[in-house]
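User: Hi! I'm working on a homework problem where we have to compare a predicted structure to a textbook description. Could you give me the structure for the chain below?
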Amino acid sequence: MKTLNKLFPLVLIFSVVLVYYESFLGVFIFDDYIWIVDNENIKSFWTSLLYSSRPLTGLTLHFNYLVGGLKAADYHAFNLLVHIASVLLLFGLLCRTSGLPGLKDKIGHDAKLLAGIVSLIWGIHPIQTESVTYIVQRSESLMGMFYLLTLYCFVRGLTLQNNNNRWFLWGIISCSLGMLCKPVMVTAPLVVILYDRTFISGSLSEAFKEHKREYLLLVATLFIPMSLLVAPNESSTSAGFGAMAVGPLQYLVTQCGVIIHYVRLVIWPVGLCLDYDWIPSNISWKTIVEISVVSLALVTSLWMFHKQRIEGFVAISFFVLLFPSSGIVPLSDCAAEHRMYLPSVCVIIFLFSGLFRFIYSVPLKYFSSSGLILILVVVMSGSLGVMTIARNRLYLSEEHMWRDVVAQCPANLRGHLGVGAVLLKQGNLEGAEHHFLRIIEDPRSADNNYRRRFGTEFAMAYNNLGVIAFERKQIEKASVFFERSLLFGKIINAEDNLRLVERLKKNNKVTK
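Assistant: Happy to help. Predicted structure tokens:
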């Protein structure tokens, strides 16, 4: 077992590379076009750094562009390296934690085995594909890497008697870099302090007493995302109380169902979807049950944390990590799998620590406890690895991915728009028309709030229908579609197309 523990870093690297190998063949998809392919800012060092709410993420895209232009494989390679670094950091953090005084007996005899298994399952779990293979979501994995590095550095600093200042310094630098990747990093100072209270100091007062200066500097890094919020960038349209037609209370109620869905995906990762188009919830018996379940889980977590139980810290960390995206501040999308990049660690730790305790408490006749655990892990990791490989293959084609979105969420307007756009590029007018008509004929379009929320999708659907009509020489019909497209927003293509058909009608160059 000791030899296996020493080989675990190599096992982790090999396993992650194996399941993500085909991701190098993946193409740009969905928001990759907005933030990479059509984004002029990434071509310059200063614009990539200054005109984004996630400057460090923008800077990495700039360097990718310098190295290989718009070669998708280079971007995938960077994302995979970040994920591998995160997996190794998680393994190191869990090993350090398991070695703390008095903790080994609580966790079990094979604490490092548990650390390796959790890191392996987390690294190859299919729910991570959206943060790793979906190129533009590297902001999530980058933030996650710096988050884990911050925790690791502070754990080293907290457990050293001498010369610990350099570890605290590196932790503060890492936290600052994470703040430049994604706002979720604002929870890092709190999680570090909760970790100190649970595993080292025993109380919050003692934690602040021993490391007041370090924690004040750590909290000071919060000024970085605060300053980025003031600067004009894309975050103003994707987050905040004006981001979508839903209030903070309705958004919070909706998140109860979303959180349950997230946990279910970690336990049983079937039904993954790139774009859920999760509809905000109204009060019903279903939502009351969801609120009750999440509330009970939160109260139980607080009780376990108060009792200084390891599970309490893990469970509270789960809620803290999700709060920026599943709290009261509405985001433009109610659900997204990449938001579970770090929170999924907590669910996996919770599940496997319970499994370890159960197996070690049951007398076994034909297997040792460690042997049975290894057999279960081989079966589980093999199954998850196959699912991750299959999930990555969807990223090899825009059409395959968008068809999967429509299959998972048939009412998803963006899914139909994506499939239709791909078919239109292929010259399949009938197939494309079917999906665009599905958007404009959606029964929910009678709701003004719904039309406002998906104005871009309606505008693009009408514009594309106009293009199809124009290809069929139906100029009057095309003109009507282009005009309707402009009612939902200013689409440059629609304006140009409308001017073209009006000019043709005026000059009588094409008959009706």
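For your comparison, note the following. Residues 72-98 form the longest helix (27 residues). The radius of gyration is 25 Å. Good luck with the assignment!
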